[in-house]
Specification:
Layout lengths: L1 H17 L28 H4 L3 H21 L4 H19 L2 H6 L12 H26 L20
């Protein structure tokens, strides 16, 4: 009977105290503009390809030719080619996200505040949770009537440091 009451209360208290912390996003800003598949599949006239540095555009052209030749010969891409495609896609994603054209189109993507970073938000959340836990400990003492000494005729000393 007691476990039926204690378990939901403990769950509610942990949710209240723990909050709903969301970790720092791992997706790149502007990911909706990145290609869904591979960069070599985009045409050379695509605005995203034009925003890349010349060296990456040349690498994409070479990769298009290599993939076309490999598909014509064997009908499938090799594991080595798949690794090269993934590496070039990653390089193109990084170059596109930090390109001047991309930054000029939205200089403050997902900005939460002028100086607020994810680390600062996490620190602020930790301080709030800490204050909530302290308040919860004080309330718990008041609920169980532990905030003052029981009626003994002798002097008592509070050693917890909370009151």
């Amino acid at each position: 009977m007691l476990s039926r009451i204690v378990a939901p209360v403990a769950l509610a208290v942990s949710a209240l105290v723990g909050g709903c912390y969301a970790p720092q996003p791992t997706e790149l800003y502007g990911s909706e503009d990145l290609p869904k598949e591979h960069w070599y599949e985009l045409s050379e006239g695509d605005s995203r390809v034009k925003a890349l540095p010349v060296a990456l555009r040349n690498a994409l052209t070479k990769q298009r030719q290599d993939i076309a030749a490999e598909l014509a010969n064997s009908g499938a891409t090799s594991d080595e080619s798949k690794k090269k495609i993934a590496d070039l896609d990653e390089s193109c994603n990084t170059a596109y996200v930090v390109s001047f054209d991309r930054i000029a189109s939205n200089p403050t993507p997902d900005m939460n505040g002028q100086l607020e970073s994810w680390d600062r938000r996490r620190e602020n959340d930790s301080m709030v949770y800490n204050q909530n836990l302290r308040a919860l400990a004080d309330e718990w003492s008041r609920i169980w009537l532990m905030e003052r000494p029981g009626g003994t005729p002798y002097d008592t000393v509070n050693t917890t440091g909370r009151f």
